[in-house]
Amino acid sequence: MASSSPDERPAKETPGAECPIYEEIISLDRVEQNQRLAVEELINTEASYVHTLELCVCDIRAHLRQKQLPDIDLEGLFSNIDDVLCVSKRFLKGLEATVSQEPEQLLLISALFQEFKEEMESVYKVYCACYEQALLLVESYKKDPRLQQEIVETLNTTVPHTGASDLSFFLVMPVQRVTKYPLLLQKILENTSARDNAYSALQSAASAMLEINANINEYKRRKEVATKYSKVEHLTLRERLGRLNKHSIAKKTTRLSRLFMHEAGIVPKTEDKEFDHLEEKFQFLESGVTELKENVTSYLNNLQVFLLSKPQECELEMEGAAQQYRRLAGTLHRTIFPEFRRRLDRLVYQPLCSLSETLKGPQQLIRKRLDKLLDYEEIEEKKSETGNVTYDEEATMNTYLAINTLLVSELPTFNQVAMQWLGQILRSLVALQRDLAKQVLQEAEIELAQLPHSHVPLPTFWKMVKDTLSQSGAQLNSFCQKFETVMPSPVVQPLSPAEERRVLSLVNKHGPEKLYQVTSNISGSRDLDLTLQRGQIVALLHEMDTKGNTNRWLVDAGGHRGYVLAGKLQPYHLVQSQKPRMQMLAPDAGAERRRHSYTLPETPKPQVLITPPAFQVVAGYAFTARSPHEVSLQAGQPLTVLEPHDKKGSKEWSLVEVNGQRGYVPSSYLMMVPTQEVGGWSLPAWSLPTQQT
Fold this sequence. Notes:
The chain is of the alpha+beta class. 61% of the residues lie in helices and 7% in strands. The protein starts with a helix and ends in a 19-residue tail after the last strand. InterPro entries: AH/BAR_dom_sf, ARHGEF37_SH3_2, ARHGEF37_SH3_C1, BAR_dom, DBL_dom_sf, DH_dom, Dynamin-Rho_GEF, SH3-like_dom_sf.
């Protein structure tokens, strides 16, 4: 027994010696199990998250879109959730692929987070920046019982198992998910040994997710600053003056002073070549969009005026191609051009207006950046002198940095998208013009095929055109000659005393043989051109301009000298009268006598006389007033012209007085007829020949 006791004692001590090792094994198993559970939680929650996003996109949003509710802004609610779903589905697929690779799973998960870091930040920062606006929309829809009922009905139909009563339950999930990634990685990291090969990789992945969240928060802050300063306010002068106070006046004065010092070179400007290049591209784009919008607006207005004329409704008593022309004009005015105008408005003008409106926000932000830059430079100068700044000054500096960073990061993408937008608008414009030309050509070919000369050889056709034009020219010339023989003699137009003095002055300066009369209104459109009224008398100075153009004559209008078209002038002849009203002023010869010691016998000067008016303005056609500013006329009714234009200067309307009433009538409805007494200064004013009955 004694010999056996020593042998048995070591056997009894063995369990006690193996107990720490057993506990360590159990602890390692527990850590590995917790690690495995943390990885499973990451994968399972990602799968559940992706499933919820699919419900949101494919069921909820699709059901609301089918309802076609114009008051619900689906883009504002769901933002870029499609991009978030796309990235999350690919990320989930990568996570599930690591399950089968057990030994390297943690390394693969860490690498996967690093791989998706930039994509996650790109999509989540946009969604998170728009999330607050989406919540405001949800709250506004709750205040509308009809919209709230539609939303609840959609949720009960598509996702009844969730028990959600509004959309915020689903909209918050991407915001929660991106903030949960660092926590899930940290949980895996806590259950991973520091000696494990994947430990440092997991640390890097967790740091990357924390960095993403920090960048998202900074992006949100910049967007809030940009939203605050990019709003275009339309304030009245009273409202602008109401905002002035001592602080704002001092701030604007400091900025203006800083700007003057920049321009004078007293203080250097803060240069940012990257931003300057982006701003130059933006300003070039903005000016192009503005000019194109103005041109398209003018084009649409001119097209509308063109459609007001309806030549197909006129009865053309002509043989030959008149009927084909009427059918072609009718087709163009009834179908082709109206449809072209609608498509042009929908596909070009409306998108152009939207693009122009979109450019206002960045333009306003660029202006605010300049203001904040001037404040920033002022505070930087103070900081270099004193070494410290106040809290408000620090906030002002941060505001400038936020605006500048946002513009530098966002303007390249914005310029690119806006340029693509503008390019699509231009392509639409070109396509519409091509379709219009094709349709007009097709219709014209159909009508031309019905003409008798449609199959005539080209040389024969041109010969026929020349012969027709020659015959028409001869007929027109014969008509003009006959017209001149049957027209009555010119009647006399009255001259005001001021006009008489001006004409007499022209006669004294240049002689009566140099007098010409303006046959129609002239509006000067070039340098040194004169603007003259019909019937005005001028004196010819030179029968060409400085470049030798004989179609532009240099004339004296009795004070102003300039060029007018030669075709708008006709010779003016003085008419003697038996009843003089006023004698023409004779030149003073006293000056000549004072200059010479001898005198010559004076020859009597001929007298040119002026007679009273010998014409009358009457209504050539009947006119019915359509507004209180107009006056009705009867054909042949005499009237008095008070102003030959309206208040805007348009010659199409004239202010007249008839039967004691004043109002506007179309100028084309008025005509002048001769009176019985003829004499004095004559201005040709032709009356219509009497219709033969």
